[in-house]
Design brief:
This protein is mainly alpha-helical. It is built from eight helices and no strands. Helix 1 packs antiparallel against helix 7, helix 3 packs across helix 4 and helix 4 runs antiparallel to helix 5. The longest helix has about 35 residues.
């Protein structure tokens, strides 16, 4: 009985390793595409984002009429309509959207960096340490740089995402090849089964 359970656990781990390996390889390929051809890759990614927004908006509206939406159907309708509108705009103007969407992302990141800078500065001044003030100054500088020229910063977004995808993909491939460590709960569970 214990041998059968160990074989099942081994098979499940093998399947999850295969899935992790596949995801890692896909992330590496995506990273190389984003770095080697950022403009073309960005247009493709923005087009997929438009398809996603359109599909999620349609699903949101359909959920209202099928009764599977949340209790507040008004907000589901608003989100669904916004998704459909954004999806149609992006799909109707993919080249224009490939400049606009990254710029909007950069503006959001810039505002986020400024807010984090203010919060970290308050933490540092309130006595949590000078390290928070240093981090706050970096956050504020990063936010101002991003907000100074979001279109130029947005043009570098595919390259940054490409390096991130490469790092993530290599990490996942290493995890899949090296294997997943046995958790403490699995060890305790095996020992209690053996004792019984």
């Amino acid at each position: 009985m214990d041998t059968i359970e160990n074989a099942d656990v081994g098979r499940m781990r093998s399947e999850s390793r295969s899935a992790i390996l596949f995801q890692g390889i896909a992330a590496i390929i995506l990273g190389f595409l984003l770095i080697s051809a950022p403009e073309a890759s960005l247009t493709v990614l923005v087009t997929f984002l438009g398809i996603y927004w359109l599909a999620s908006g349609i699903v949101g509206i359909v959920k209202i009429f099928t009764g599977t939406a949340s209790r507040n159907w008004f907000w589901a309708a608003v989100v669904g309509a916004l998704g459909i509108f954004a999806g149609l705009v992006v799909l109707d103007h993919p080249l224009w959207s490939s400049l606009l969407v990254p710029a909007v992302v950069i503006v959001v990141l810039g505002i986020d960096a400024l807010l984090m800078g203010v919060v970290n500065f308050v933490r540092g001044v309130s006595g949590e340490g000078i390290g928070y003030i240093a981090i706050a100054l970096l956050d504020l500088a990063f936010g101002f740089i991003l907000l100074a020229s979001p279109v130029i910063a947005g043009s570098f977004l595919p390259i940054v995402l490409g390096f991130f995808a490469l790092f993530l993909g290599v990490s996942m491939v290493i995890l899949a090849l090296v294997g997943q460590p046995v958790t403490q709960e699995e060890t305790i569970e095996r020992e209690t089964r053996r004792a019984a």
